[in-house]
Amino acid sequence: MKVLKVNPVVLILINMLVPTMYIFRHGTYLQTFFMVFCSVLLLVTGNVKKLVAFLVLYGAIYGICFAGIYIGLLRFLVGFFVIVIQFVPCFMIASIIISQYSSTQLLSALEAIHLPRTLVIATTITLKFFPTFRREFSYIRESMRLRGIAFSLRRPVESFRYFIAPQLFRCAALAEEVTAAGLVKGIDVPVKRTSYFEEKFRFTDGLVLFVFAVGIAGGFVWNAS
Amino acid sequence: MKKLKIKDVVLVALLTALYMVFYMVGAMGSMLFGAFGHAISPGICAFLGGSVILFMSRKVGRFGQYTIMVAIVMLLCALMGGGYLPWLITSMVSAVLADLIASGSNRTPVWRVAVASGIMHVGQAWGAIIPSWFFLEQYKKDWIARGQSPKEMDSMVKATQGIMGGLASVVVFLLAFAGVWLGYYILRKHLEKTIGSDVKEGQGKAA
Known about the structure:
Number of helices of chain B: 9
Helix content of chain B: over 70%
Structural class of chain B: mainly alpha
Number of strands of chain A: 0
Strand content of chain B: under 5%
Oligomer: heterodimer
């Protein structure tokens, strides 16, 4: 099946607009529309597994919010999850941005928004580093297992040290590697950067934005009626 | 004042990713303490992330490190749908202050790093406290519009208004201060080794 490739600028724009829209219009319509819209987006971009995971997450959060009405113990969680549930569509789009685009593509997309270059580079690196954490953590656990050391709640500071110290020094080592790679690619050259992946605005991007705009307009009509 | 190099920006970015993991854990953990927990959630994050802050000050130690870290957090939160203007303003202002206090070198005394971390995180807490002090109606309207129930919002305002807001600020500062000292306790041996070797390496190059 052919998957749709959306311009990352369009995805970033949508992700910034979704929470902003809640300020103007709220309620079931907008929440449902964003969820359906982002689910379809995940589907057409070929992220079926992610879609299933997010639907399960959405269902679980919805369940907690619903249970919180009847179970006093869960009530303190409801205030938090009622906000989190609105961000699930944003997380869906963020997952596409992180997994489907390389750092170079993200750099080009963020530069198109005319953000400061340092911030663009830093944000791109941070975004791409998140998926690495699980792998790094598994290396740490494996090393600890080989040395016969275990995380223990009885020694919280020691356990925390076993987690944090290798992570921090790994970050320092990675920074050297990433910087070297970046310098080779001319990251510090003070000229306007061009990109091999320079994404053009295609018909499908316009269509995605059009559907999004129609859906939001529908929300205003819904509220007015 | 030393300017940030590309290598420093990269390291700050990677450390921010680690810091944001604590940010999420802090936000989740703060739920256990209800509305007041929400008000002090930057402190919980600061307590856990104190090691990251100290490590950054030792490995980077240049003006702009805290500002870039907070700017990345704010930009990512905006991309994920959690942006809020007053929070952005108070966080950025406090990050610049933190830079002024503790970004002179990579040998800044630990207490100054702890004060800088305290101020930086109090600034983040003020993103909720200041609106509830000065723009109460708008603040409530904004968050109710984002799906928060009026009842929850009232309890949140109670936890950030008046003396409770002041108390939350003090708690956040103390947690952040303690977090950096915890980081120092955990990392001191490692840092002595690495910074010592960095200095020797630098002297070798100079010679």
